[in-house]
Amino acid sequence: MKKLPQIQHLIDGQIVGGGSRSQDVFNPATGKAEKRVLLADKLTVEKAIASAQAAYPAWRATPPLKRARVMSKLKILLEENAEQLCALLTAEHGKVLSDSMGELQRGIENVEYASYAPELLKGEHSKNVGPAMDSWSEFQPIGVTAGITPFNFPVMVPLWMWPMAIACGNTFVLKPSERDPSSALLVAELALQAGLPPGVLNVVNGDKEAVDALLADKRVQAVSFVGSTPIAEYIYSVGCAHGKRVQALGGAKNHAIVMPDADIANAVSALMGAAFGSCGERCMAIPLVLAVGDATADAVVAGLKTEIAKMKVGPGTDAANDMGPLVTQQHLDKVTGYVEQGIKEGAKLVVDGRAVKVKGNGYFLGACLFDNVKPGMKIYQEEIFGPVLGVMRVKTLQEGMDLINAHEYGNGTCIFTRDGEAARYFSEHILVGMVGINVPLPVPVAYHSFGGWKRSLFGDLSAYGPDAVRFYTKRKTITQRWPSAGVREGAVYSFPTNR
Length: 499
Ligand code: NAD
Hints:
The structure is a single chain. Helices cover 39% and strands 22% of the residues. By secondary structure, it is an alpha/beta fold. The protein folds into 2 domains: 6-250 and 456-478, 3-Layer(aba) Sandwich (Aldehyde Dehydrogenase, Chain A, domain 1), CATH 3.40.605.10; 255-437, Aldehyde Dehydrogenase, Chain A, domain 2. The strands form 6 sheets. A 7-stranded mixed β-sheet has the order 15-16-17-14-13-19-20, with helices on both faces. A 6-stranded mixed β-sheet has the order 10-9-8-11-12-22, with helices on both faces. The termini are far apart. 52% of the residues are buried.
């Protein structure tokens, strides 16, 4: 049997082995195992943490401007290596190349933001808070930080985390998804080329064993996680129990409302991309449409049906295709299971993507469209994370908003309308973290922050942007006084005030 190339770890600036277990990495478009990824054991993770710990004092002392220059250089290297990176991404994830390029671009924006670190770390200063007394707050790095990331954005989500952590003066251990680990590793190697000292960023590949080692280790001060809600909740509770700062972003079930006055043709186009882009494997995807009124629902369903008929499904490497495969056979089985479940529950399957056949053994599923989805159904409640879009019929905007507000997830949402008053009411009262008005995927740009509400985010601070500065630093407030020499002051026993 042919020996598959092995994906290892990056520890202390070196590509190294570690751990006796490994697992296959598949090309989802062919169904073939192309590589094997090593699964780090506790000892390997501890080596990575030790390397990050050793690199911390010198990196912390490195002027922020110098740290930021590494980010500027990395941005250039990411652009120069975009083709190779995206080819790797598509080969392991399956998404079409143009989508991989989009993902990389959004990742690069976070590297760009991290290169503003000197500006972002300036702190706050107040003069004369008391007689001859000044006070300032500065934001100090916290030490070794860690990130655990999902399969669906293997380049972008790691870049939500470590560039800001590192630009703020911390060191980092990244544990990417074991399903498509190569692109995150390549980005880390580019960071070394950009001038990052060994040990500042380490990458350990692995599964639960590696994650648990990161969570239990006292040297790790903070953990950022992005993935499914059950694991996010686990990371949050275990990480907090070990005294760490934790932000854990979880799953989603995003609803779009289509109002009767919306530009239906444009709403349908927007919904196509939001539901089926990246095969629905996006935490900001729209798997549910709430159409207000039967006439709106009929028009939306008819429009979607027409557009789906034009969609091309096939390998992501072929630029003619709109949608690639799902990530693994196991995930394909799970998603088709939901299609069967929806039929059993009484929703009307208008388009059956299971009929789409692509040559070979790839994990392809065509776009599926359900009408008459109802709140009690599993396909309404649970995150499917595949190309399955459900339409629900509601009578009023308020009925739609009540459904959204009652749902356990609150990541993203969107309203399609021409009515400013309705849009304003919606954005004011909806219990969701990221809201679009005629924008189907309201993913905040890198200089805002990304985070859902309810069971889509555990922790207080969102990912990237200004919140990342707060997450990866500790505020220290210093108050200083330089009384005039020779002035004698008696002891004061009352609480100091500013009278
Ligand atoms: P996942 O939860 O299965 O895995 C995420 C990470 O957790 C991986 O690195 C994995 O190795 C690790 N992990 C898995 N099981 C574990 C366990 N039992 N103990 C410890 N660690 C474990 O998620 P996924 O399937 O890779 O990604 C898809 C999910 O991520 C979806 O639910 C999606 O909504 C979510 N997601 C959320 C956001 C967001 O910003 N809210 C963004 C992207 C993806």
